[in-house]
Amino acid sequence: MKRPSTPLKAVRPRFVPLALAAIVAAGCEGGPDAATSADAADLVLTDGRVVTVDASLPEAEAVAMRDGRIVAVGTSDEIRAYVGEATEVIDLAGRLAIPGFIEGHGHYMSLGRSKEILDLMDVTSWEEIVSMVEQAVAQAEPGQWIEGRGWHQEKWASIPEGSVEGVPVHDMLSAVSPENPVRLGHASGHAAFVNEAVLEAAGITGDTPNPPGGEIVMDANGDPTGLLRETAQGLAGRARSAYPNDATTPEERDAAFRRQVRLAGEDALAHGVTAFHDAGSGFGTIDRFRAMADAGELPVRLYVMVRGESLESMRDNLGDYFMDGHADGFLTVRSIKEQIDGALGPHGAWLLAPYADLPTSSGLNLEEPEVIAETARIAVDNGYQLNTHAIGDRANRETIDIYESVWEEVGVDGASLRWRVEHAQHIHPDDLPRFAELGIIASMQGVHGTSDGPWVLKRLGRERAENGAYKWRTLTDMGVVINNGTDVPVERISPVASFYSTVSRMTAEGPFYPEEALTREEALETYTINNAYAAFDEDDLGSITVGKYADIAVLDRDILTIPMDEIPEAQVDYTIVHGEVRYRR
After folding, report:
1. Which of 28, 218, 230, 350 has its CB surrounded by the most CB atoms within 10 Å?
2. CA dist 236 to 214, 220, 506, 515, Å?
3. Which domains are delineated in the chain?
4. pTM of the predicted model as reported, rounded to 2 decimal places
């Protein structure tokens, strides 16, 4: 069992001047006399700009890979000595090669599933959604469920008349889908909109009580609008699971699982992602991942957080599921995911004071702090990391309090455990230094800041937004380890888009507190070595270093030097996983 060693600030590579890079490169490990025909590389990249994120050799021109590992990094002349008759050679022609992007927080199976349903991420009106559903109904059998995901009311040009709390009522949607249950997930994943057929199937009426941690939004007459916040989504989910037309055989379910794994992998690889922190899967899903990993069928490396299991189940089973670099590093299970609040968009983030645009609410607490505290004790007992979703300022404070209290109670060095706060979007100024003092990792998503930026002030008000929202620069300067991601499918999986958000803070309406931006070198670290560290993988991933896994992304332009506004145009030309080209543009 691998245990955390030193904090990242002590081991994290930093970029050094180019002149020093040239000196170090001259001493390339594994030089031209080291190779023979017997140990020629499987794959060689040559004549490029290789940015390694490794302080001992920050830049190079070429890389040699064999048996899934990096065997040499240096000049093109040096690396040509590793070319044999069977070696595949890719001439980078000056292009940028970097460590493979690591998605630091996403939902792997939800990404695969999102490829099979209506994509609502780019719609600009409620009418457009209704039209898309109407078209889907025309191609569906009566009774067949219509599902979609990705809508966000703040991205619409206008809100329909009669809306409640900024979201429409279900009348228009139900009119075009009288015989088909319709469930449409909010972009955040923390709310869903359903039609009348789902309300009936789920038995939701004006008399249905709100479940703990959830809300059935009602209109002025006390009737359900169709909007289900947070845990109330489970009412529709249970109706979906029980629906007669949804019955499938074990073979069909296995085929669907494998298809979704493949679809998620294809999207990840096309964006240069070689490893993926899956923010929550149950033991049953992990069993399927393990079977695919053992068969060499996982398209990218997965770092899976256990989620959705009861306290009793975790006490009984965590020991059997601990995996550290299983199947050549393609599957690791050594963390638990908890969720203390919801998301800001649908007013589910748990705040210390009411919402500026909904003063009757301070958000929702989804999991009682004591339950999370008991999970924390179980995590310590089993050598697991704990990663807690916390978006609102109260959610962040409660989470930090839980971590600190449990560490003191059981007498452990909390910093060595590398526990994380997932999202850490809105933090009270008093709590910002506590991340550094306690060694808590801030697992953030750059693209959330720019996607949410245009409406954050509406939710929080100017003072709270300015003092505590998306504090990337502030946390970094305090010495906090930040790891980056997209929270896919909440956002597209593109690391380039999230990288651009991290360094520009540019929204559709202009920069969002640009003083909180990171440098490009820092942003690259958040997507590579920091993500590796946040998963205890810095010895094997996160930099182009001899001995590490050969996971590399090649871009068509240099995102570290091109003009800022050109970064979003960058595309991935090659994605290499375990020394194998798994994506070519």
Report:
1. 230
2. 12, 22, 37, 42
3. 1-100+543-585 (2.30.40.10), 119-246 (3.10.310.70)
4. 0.89
